[in-house]
Amino acid sequence: MSILIKNALIVTQNSKRDVKEGDIYIEDGKIAEIGKVNVEADFVIDGNKRIAMPGLINTHNHVPMTFMRGIADDVDLFEFLNRVWKVEENMTKEDIYRGSLMGIEEMLRTGTTTFVDMYSYEDEVARAVKDKGIRGFLGWAVVDEELTTQGGTPVKNAENFIKEYKGDELVTPLIAPHAVYTCGEETLLKSKEIAEKHHTLITIHIAETRKEVYDHRKKTGMRPVEWLDKIGFLSNRVIGAHMVWLTLHEIKLLSSKGVVASHNPTSNMKLGNGGAMPLPEMLQNGMNVTLGTDSVVSNNNLDMFEVMKFAALLHKNERWDPRATNAQMILDFATVNAAKALKLNAGSIEEGKLADIVILDAREPNAQPLTKDNAISNIVYSINGLNVEYTIVNGKIVYKKN
Ligand SMILES: [Zn+2]
After folding, report:
1. For FRET with 69, which of 4, 83, 190, 390 sits at 20 to 30 Å CA-CA?
2. pLDDT confidence of 223, banded at 50, 70, 90?
């Protein structure tokens, strides 16, 4: 199938960060040509008064939990987890599939083309990913054996899932040890071994709350990142979600090992985690920062436009400095930085890249006025997911506004 997007304002996110007017021709899942294109296509999209931008990449989610929206608002993390676990006790595989469908529909509707997930029974999430045509980096959640209700051992289940989906066009399997308070040294190192054996990424929650840091220090004498480094877990395969409570020493450790950050500002603020991820210091030390929604239970939606805005505002406020973030930096987090973290040939609109593209309707009042100069500002600060008119993944239209 071929698609021609005519006369759009293209936010390329190429190395020069060009914003230019032109056409985009998509063929066989890839961006074939950009500029003034004169070819016949199977489908033509009118780009007039529209923005074409790279699809957004959400690096932290638990998508099956979408059906639990609103069950744990305005309560502390202990009560939050109690309510979630209560629902999960009676959850079926069909619930996981249905919840995933719901969440994926919302992501496509709001311009996300790729997401990273962590949950049990990712085979059900994979089924939903294939049905809907989104790109999923799916991590089977792993905890210590005595904590699990899954049949079989979690690491074995995770490895079987990786073997099953290795090489799939839309599903990229990875392994997801949950956190330092649910995974001991043996589980973490076994997860690492599986990731190395099958050349996959690893995702894990790190230093989300101050309590996690204090409890871990009481248990081991070390802060979570120091301990993860000591046991040899950290590497450039690791995407650490949250990382709110870090010292400068830990940032330097993470940076030296090439660990990627998934920043989840909306979830962190809603759960009242306090403070803020030390973004300026992470960037000064060369860390690759990306963005995630976390599940809808702590968000309560999956709109990455909203996450971009929250990320930008949180750090300005935290540092008493509006220069602490800027729109281009934030858009990079959700596109090129995330693509680099996932080693995915996407994140920018350039010839030869995967055709993961979002078309925004800039005729809507919240996107006006629109010029080349304010397009990125509009994307981060004024536009939201409901401006999305088309979402294209792998060269296929997977969402179209009625
Ligand atoms: Zn999470």
Report:
1. 390
2. very high
Give the pTM.
0.98
382 C-alpha vs ligand 1 centroid, how far in Å?
A: 27
Measured in Å, residue 245 CA sits from the centre of ligand 1 at 15
Q: How far does residue 153's CA lie from ligand 1's centre (Å)? A: 21
In this prediction, residue 122 carries a pLDDT of: 97
Distance (angstroms) between ligand 1 centre and the Cα of 61 equals: 6
- Span 19-28, mean pLDDT? 98
Q: Could you tell me the two tokens for 320?
A: 């008493």
Cβ neighbourhood burial of 354 (10 Å; 0-12, 13-18, 19+): buried
The mean pLDDT of 33-39, rounded to a whole number, is 96
Are the C-beta atoms of 105 and 310 separated by less than 8 Å?
no
Ligand 1 centroid–CA 264 distance in Å is: 9
Domain covering 56-342, topology: TIM Barrel (3.20.20)
Q: What is the whole-number distance in angstroms between the Cα of residue 49 and the centre of ligand 1?
A: 37
Q: Average pLDDT for residues 345-374, to the nearest whole number?
A: 98
What is the tally of helices (H) and strands (E) in the chain?
Answer: 14, 16
